[in-house]
């Protein structure tokens, strides 16, 4: 508590200064504000944040929230997928960049702002719905960053997939962090806090109905070059037998801070097939919490990340096996160059009832430079005996024999290294179940690898 | 372990003559009141006739201990400890049973299975009137000890109690005490630094290979080693020593809190092998009683090409909190950790290791086997850290857990931190239960269920058991079977 107070914390100040909102979730906001005040901005003394330091974020000067006009076009970094697009700019819906008029059958999309404001003191069915679907911290314990989102959230999406709907066309959710108060040309402005930062609190609430199948692609990108902070929360529920394919790409600008908490509840026989590709941001932490509530539910949370410069890339996962015969798979691969740091924390909890659980974790990291660092904490907490659980973690440089093989065939060292790195990473993308997204992610990764200095000549 | 009836009788008589009288008065005189404060720390130091620097060191530790919070990150539930309700010096023996007839028959049964001679059983069970310098006498080792002492002295090896070493080798003690585990390390180590009463000291001179396994079991100066034991082992350049700690037989002990500190220092080309079998009283089936075993063990591979190897078989104690670690400072140094931990009934164990790679080409290997049964909870907690200068460091970690029954827990919490691209780290862990196929195979061949489980578990642990010195390995195997009794069927 005292820690939280003594440390510089722009969000405590912002909470004090904020105007009270009398919208549908006012009481929820109060509780969330309280939760954040109690905990404060996490420091490395908090076990869950042991490896990721938000000190830089605390030093950013935030501009008072102003509505940014939506840009005319999206940046190139957005994943190139054929899909129905829904865009949030700094956490607010951008109708001009969203295909709200051509939603596939079985898909209902509402703006969170509409739902929240419809209430405005009067009692309204939609408003009730919103407060029931949002929670203070999305079920995370000790989660000040999720609570901060709840305290400040203005807009976002409420998406419902009808029972039994087989949605062919994927939805593509674009989360754009825009700030052109910085210099328009520079993009290595990681520590350049000349322009004031823009904070946004995007939110997604997604219900996938019984036996429904859907693919939802996400792109988290930036524009403008100024420092940004996106603190997002996604609450996703999969009903019985539902299948959600959920490839997520984080490709924010170099001056961006990106924190996103995704909470999943997965009912009997449902399958979550998620992939997280992290390519950008100065500091990015994506946290996934999956609760397997029904028998035979499955959570696949795979991913890949790439760090260079002084980036910090954090993937923190928690899978709660709360029913028998549930399955979880977590495979992550990372490449770290420069003085970047990769963090992988995964915890698998198997409750006494969850007999016949099958849970596997794997993390592989390639360290390319002397200053790079990887921190892994693959954790198992098991209370049932008839289970097959394992985890593995490796860290090392490129295989010298493989490098020698390529060089012996006349391939220059830099090219050979690039080939091996690409092979290491691309392999993991095969876990993406949707072909269009897989291709788009592959391209984004290749483009990013090509930009990495020192690897490719 | 084999003692003839004759020996036993002899020893029995010897014991009576020697210890019946005078024993209690001795204790009376040396006893300090319950509780701990600065005065007690000073008195302990004074009684040991310690030099000023050591007294000061103890006092500094004590001052810090008062401020230090209890560690709370471990996954065990520790009931609050009343530090003022403990004797810190020469705790008088609680009223023990008058004869073996009064001892819990279950414990006797265990002794029998381990093949422990009757007289030793009395000692272990704390029967009144049983010889105090237990193991020495029972093992007929009065002569043995003397022989050993002579051999060791010839080689220049120092093996004595730490209090004696403070007097005889103050320069070594001053140089190394607290250099691996500073008193500020953690609350339990800090308390130990303030109030430690005894423990072992070993110094192996350069180039000497210690000709025998050193052991607290045979310790020449086997005084009452209290609950705050302090061990310091220094292997000078090019030397080798293997040290055994503990005992396979279950020991009754009235004191609940054991906070020991073990420091190992290996200089250039030296090797230390430290093996522990820990079987303190684990409490009864309902978790009543039992020892809290809070141990800080750490070895520093200071020299080039040095090696420290920890092997532990942990079956006892109600709560185990223990992380034997290696600091790999010297280039090409090697750290090893082999562990078998068995928890049954309501035992809790949070144990593991730390491997800190500092020097170039340092290598470490961690093999941990955890077996959890009954309502027990067990955690492997490990850290592998590679610092930027540790070029070519290498680690291999394997931690496997076996669950027996649906009411126990097994957890794995590894931290893997690498800051050097040339370091290669591998970590793997599995959790499973005894396969029904294996069990069926044994049962169909007429092996009883409990024996079959013991057999399978021994197979599961064999990588670790192989690293134990011979005399320990045989007993430890039996111990595994006994520890798991009542966990099946």
From TrEMBL, chain A:
Residue ranges occupied by any SUF system FeS cluster assembly SufBD core domain in the UniProt entry: 196-424
Residue ranges of domain SUF system FeS cluster assembly SufBD N-terminal in the record: 20-172
Family: Belongs to the iron-sulfur cluster assembly SufBD family.
Protein's name in the database: Fe-S cluster assembly protein SufD
InterPro entries per the UniProt record, alphabetical: Fe-S_cluster_assembly_SufBD, SUF_FeS_clus_asmbl_SufBD_core, SUF_FeS_clus_asmbl_SufBD_sf, SUF_FeS_clus_asmbl_SufD, SufBD_N
GO BP field: iron-sulfur cluster assembly
Taxonomic lineage from the root: Bacteria, Pseudomonadati, Pseudomonadota, Alphaproteobacteria, Rhodospirillales
TrEMBL record, chain B:
NCBIfam families, A to Z: PRK11814.1 (NF008773), sufB (TIGR01980)
InterPro entries per the UniProt record, alphabetical: Fe-S_cluster_assembly_SufBD (IPR055346), SUF_FeS_clus_asmbl_SufB (IPR010231), SUF_FeS_clus_asmbl_SufBD_core (IPR000825), SUF_FeS_clus_asmbl_SufBD_sf (IPR037284), SufBD_N (IPR045595)
Membership in a protein family: Belongs to the iron-sulfur cluster assembly SufBD family.
Ranges where the SUF system FeS cluster assembly SufBD N-terminal domain occurs: 139-209
GO BP of this protein: iron-sulfur cluster assembly
Sequence ranges assigned to domain SUF system FeS cluster assembly SufBD core in this UniProt record: 218-460
Record-given protein name: Fe-S cluster assembly protein SufB
């Amino acid at each position: 508590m005292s820690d939280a107070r003594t440390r510089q914390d722009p969000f405590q100040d912002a909470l004090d200064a904020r105007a009270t909102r009398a919208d549908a979730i006012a009481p929820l906001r109060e509780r969330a504000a309280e939760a954040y005040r109690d905990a404060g901005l996490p420091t490395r003394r908090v076990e869950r944040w042991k490896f990721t330091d938000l000190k830089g974020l605390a030093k950013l000067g935030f501009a008072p929230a102003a509505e940014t006009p939506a840009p005319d076009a999206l940046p190139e970094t957005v994943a190139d997928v054929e899909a129905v697009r829904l865009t949030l700019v700094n956490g607010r819906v951008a109708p001009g960049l969203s295909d709200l008029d051509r939603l596939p059958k079985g898909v209902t999309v509402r703006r969170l702002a509409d739902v929240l404001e419809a209430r405005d003191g009067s009692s309204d069915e939609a408003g009730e719905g919103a407060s029931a679907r949002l929670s203070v911290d999305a079920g995370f314990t000790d989660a000040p960053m999720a609570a901060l989102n709840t305290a400040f959230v203005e807009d976002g999406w409420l998406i419902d997939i009808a029972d039994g709907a087989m949605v062919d066309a994927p939805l593509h959710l674009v989360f754009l962090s825009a700030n052109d108060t910085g210099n328009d040309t520079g993009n290595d402005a990681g520590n350049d806090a000349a322009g004031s930062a823009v904070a946004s609190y995007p939110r997604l609430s997604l219900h996938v109905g019984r036996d429904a199948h859907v693919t939802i692609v996400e792109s988290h990108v930036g524009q403008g070059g100024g420092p940004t902070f996106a603190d997002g929360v996604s609450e996703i529920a999969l009903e019985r037998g539902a299948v959600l394919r959920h490839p997520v790409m984080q490709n924010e600008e170099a001056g961006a801070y990106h924190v996103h908490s995704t909470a999943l509840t997965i009912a009997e026989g449902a399958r979550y097939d998620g992939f997280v590709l992290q390519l950008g941001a100065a500091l990015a932490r994506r946290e996934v919490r999956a609760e397997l509530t029904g028998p035979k539910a499955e959570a696949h949370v795979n991913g890949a990340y790439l760090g260079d410069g002084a980036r910090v890339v954090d993937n923190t996962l928690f899978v709660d096996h709360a029913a028998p015969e549930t399955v979880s798979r977590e495979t992550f691969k990372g490449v770290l160059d420069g003085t970047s740091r990769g963090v992988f924390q995964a915890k698998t909890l198997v409750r006494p009832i969850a007999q016949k659980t099958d849970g596997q974790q794997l993390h592989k990291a390639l360290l390319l430079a002397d200053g790079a660092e990887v921190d892994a904490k693959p954790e198992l907490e098991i209370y049932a005996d008839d289970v097959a659980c394992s985890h593995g973690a490796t860290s090392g440089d490129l295989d010298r024999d493989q490098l020698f093989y390529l060089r012996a065939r006349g391939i220059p060292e830099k090219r050979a290294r690039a080939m091996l790195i690409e092979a290491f990473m691309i392999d993991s993308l095969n876990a993406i179940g949707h072909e269009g997204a897989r291709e788009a992610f592959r391209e984004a990764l290749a483009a990013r690898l090509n930009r990495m200095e020192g690897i490719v000549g | 372990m084999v003692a003839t009836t004759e020996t036993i009788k002899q020893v029995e008589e010897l014991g009576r003559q020697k210890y019946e009288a005078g024993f209690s008065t001795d204790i009376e005189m040396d006893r300090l009141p319950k509780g701990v404060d600065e005065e007690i720390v000073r008195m302990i130091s004074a009684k040991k006739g310690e030099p000023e620097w050591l007294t000061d060191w103890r006092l500094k530790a004590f001052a810090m201990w008062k401020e230090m919070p209890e560690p709370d990150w471990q996954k065990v539930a520790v009931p609050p400890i009343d530090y003022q309700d403990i004797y810190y010096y020469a705790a008088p023996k609680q009223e023990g049973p008058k004869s073996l007839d009064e001892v819990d028959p279950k414990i006797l049964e265990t002794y029998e299975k381990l093949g422990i001679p009757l007289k030793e059983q009395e000692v272990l069970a704390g029967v009144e009137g049983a010889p105090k310098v237990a193991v020495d006498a029972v093992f007929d080792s009065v002569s043995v000890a003397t022989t050993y002492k002579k051999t060791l002295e010839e080689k220049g090896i120092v093996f004595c109690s730490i209090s004696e070493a403070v007097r005889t080798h103050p320069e070594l003690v001053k140089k190394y005490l607290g250099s691996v585990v500073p008193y500020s390390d953690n609350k339990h180590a800090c308390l130990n630094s303030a109030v430690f009463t005894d423990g072992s000291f070993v110094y192996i001179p350069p180039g000497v290979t210690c000709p025998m396994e050193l052991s607290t079991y045979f310790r020449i100066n086997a005084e009452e080693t209290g609950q705050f034991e302090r061990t310091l082992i220094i292997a000078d350049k090019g030397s080798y020593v293997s040290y055994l700690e503990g005992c396979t037989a279950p020991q009754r002990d009235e004191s609940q809190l054991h906070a020991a500190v073990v420091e190992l220092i290996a200089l250039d080309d030296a090797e230390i092998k430290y093996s522990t079998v820990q079987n303190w009283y684990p409490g009864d089936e309902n978790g009543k009683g039992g020892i809290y075993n809070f141990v800080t063990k750490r070895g520093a591979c200071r020299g080039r090409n040095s090696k420290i190897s920890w092997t532990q078989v942990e079956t006892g104690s109600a709560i185990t909190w223990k992380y034997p670690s290696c600091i790999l400072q010297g280039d090409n140094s090697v750290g090893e950790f082999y562990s078998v931990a068995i928890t049954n009934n309501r035992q809790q164990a949070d144990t593991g290791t730390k491997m800190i790679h500092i020097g170039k080409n340092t290598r470490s290997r961690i093999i941990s086997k955890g077996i959890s049964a009954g309502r027990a909870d067990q955690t492997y907690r490990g850290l592998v850290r590679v610092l930027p200068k540790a070029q070519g460091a290498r680690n291999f970690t394997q931690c496997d857990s076996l669950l027996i029954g649906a009411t126990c827990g097994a957890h794995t919490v590894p931290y893997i931190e690498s800051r050097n691209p040339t370091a290669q780290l591998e970590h793997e862990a599995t959790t499973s239960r005894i396969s029904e196929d294996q069990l069926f195979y044994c049962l169909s061949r007429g092996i009883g269920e409990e024996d079959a489980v013991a057999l399978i578990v021994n197979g599961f642990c064999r990588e670790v058991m192989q690293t134990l010195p011979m005399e320990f390995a045989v007993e430890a195997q039996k111990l595994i079977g006994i520890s798991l009794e009542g966990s099946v069927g």
